[in-house]
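pasting input
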Amino acid sequence: MPEFKIQHLTKYTYPAPVRDSANQIILYPIQDEWQEVIKQEIHISGDPVIDTFIDYYGNKVGSFTYSEPHSALLINSKILVQTKHKQLPGNDIFPAQQWEDLKQLRYMVPYIDFLRLEHFEGFNDLKALVEAEKSKDDTPYQAVLRFSRYVYDNFQYIKGVTSVETTMDEIWKLKAGVCQDFAHILTLMLRLVGIPARYVSGYICTHRSTTMRGEGATHAWAEAYIPDYGWLGIDPTNNCIANEMHVRLAVGRNFLDCSPVKGVYKGASEHRLDVSVAVGYEDDAPSMHQPGEFIDMPEHKPVTTFPKNSYQRYMEMLLQQQQQQQQQ
Amino acid sequence: MQESSYFSQYSPIKGVWDEMYGENDIRDHYSKVIDYLSRESAEDLSRKEELAKRLFMSQGITFTVYSSGEGIEKIFPFDIIPRIITADEWAFVEKGIKQRLNALNLFLKDVYNNQFIVKDGIVPIDIIYSCPHFLREMYQLQVPYDIYVHIAGIDLIRDHDGTFYVLEDNLRTPSGVSYMLENREITKRLFPDLMPQCSVRSVTEYPTILYKNLLSLSPRQISNPTIVLLSPGIYNSAYFEHTTLARLMGVELVEGRDLVVKNQKVYMKTTIGLQQVDVIYRRVDDEYLDPLVFNPASILGVAGIMGAYRTGNVAIVNAIGNGVADDKAVYAYVPEMIKYYLNEEPILKNVPTYQLSNQDEREHVFENINKMVVKKTNGSGGYGMLMGHASSDEEIEDYKKEILKDPRNFIAQPTISLSAAPCYMQGGLHPRRIDLRPYALCGPDGIEIVPGGLTRVALKEGSLVVNSSQGGGSKDTWVLA
């Protein structure tokens, strides 16, 4: 039973003070049979009160406001979490029976949202591709593995070419992106063949000896619903089953349901976002207290000229422009 | 009965229910008005018409038409001849609306909590979950007194035999009530002596009832809770109405930038600091209400307001997420909802509605498109609909293509003929098609409907479209005691 110490730092820096900031965080690991949160502390600069609730998909969501003028917002989440290995699906049920079982789910509340397709320009291409990829004798589990490999082989992992605002059309043309784009494509492919698929955000925790894509930041992958088994985590960015090394924060239809940190504030539109995720192990020297290396996120907007004179700052405050901030 | 020249020259439209003219004679409830008019010369009436126009203009009673890229402010054309509803007709309509609203409130409570009606297969789950206004953010969120629809503007029309049909429920941010109030004020000035003679019931209590209901929703038990009317601002087509209602109720008129959320409470910025807000009568659509949760590009809303709503620190009127109940595909199931929740037979009829996502129904509609009106399930204001009988083949083909792209977004209804009422134009009375939108207010004490409403008129001869955005006008609506 692996135990991980995770420190997730999110820091927004603004060139001039901003205010009336309202934020939402989904940084609380899911608690279930395979994942137990032993301890979690969240510190936010300015010490705002965090109000938490459970959203439609069962995720714990926190919200807080920060009204006073501030030049930075730091969210520091420290987690001690224990995970368990989840047995993989067996192959003891006939494929035809499993596909038939999946058809029954189409109009059931827990799955309907995870079967909904979105239309984009390449939709018909993707549909044809999925039909061609899928082998007739595949079980849903085998189809999941096959599609994950397809995404892994045919999409390039490049940081910075996409952002949270990149549309499916653009990703489809680029054939490249980061974990959230990989997860997005895979969920669509699975839904196309009738397998309920959802988006997952969380952390990937590997041992020192190996490196995986998605370390050092929040990670994203997919979950597919396998009849008589339940939700199976599948990470197309690393082409592996997401199991005890993946710590789940939230599930949803897509990225928007799971964004770990997002906010709206009034002030200058420029901001710098630094995110770091550092993982330590129970048998490791604690990396908990050393802030990890800050990683530039794809949508990070560099601050070109740090402010500016008092008059410009004043004018900015007057404009009280409302801005959004979102972390991938 | 004295034969008036206005009446003898009136020629009703064949096969259409005429509110004034029945069985070759004036209906009783119109006789006093026609009597009165017959004593007035055409010059007098034209002078009254002119006076009405000037009053509307000088009081700035306007609305905005969105077209050609710019908003154009216009006065809402007003016809001086009132539309008259008998006490019996009103009693029927009132009972029907109350029943409908009760069911719709129960539906909203259900669909955002236990979803019994979906589990029992009465309303197809797919229609709910594919509706863009079914907001998962509202799931299990408790609203005061379980009231979702505080204000409804239910559109009624009358078929050729006078039967009332509900056309739309308008449960989000229905507008037009200020015209009901202003039309009455103008009519009082045009026909000061006629109104008491006819014992017309008063509509002026509307703001008082609404204010009483808003007050009762305050989460803080204090003597003077802060109530605000949240408007999108001066560019909104109903801005005149927002100012009018705020003034009549004596509440603050605010825009999103005047409010701020702090620790799950909403505050209004004032010259003496922040003042906590208890109740928000919002005229901003759900999508724009909270940029943190909904459309992040919205600058009309207040970031974090959803959190304040969820924690019960502020009441929002109407509730968020009501759109799922007035989606036109869901509308088709309202009679079923009435049976399901209330165990009653529906009093008011629904217009038969074809779901274009259903292949059989779609084919039927395409074959009979000349007899159909096709609408977007989430459209409003008469934008983007197709009137089969009045469209060219090319328009129909284009529209069909549009439908096939996403059939869930369209429904079709057989063309209902709409009743006609006399309008004063070119020195005489002429029949024009009308509808009726009464405004129902739902509070902890129940549903109240002021006797009256907005009667909209299709001023163009032969037109069936009454929407103000499509060249419609309005009339004062008299409900007789």
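fyi The domain at 352-414 of chain B is CATH 3.30.1490.270 (Dna Ligase; domain 1).
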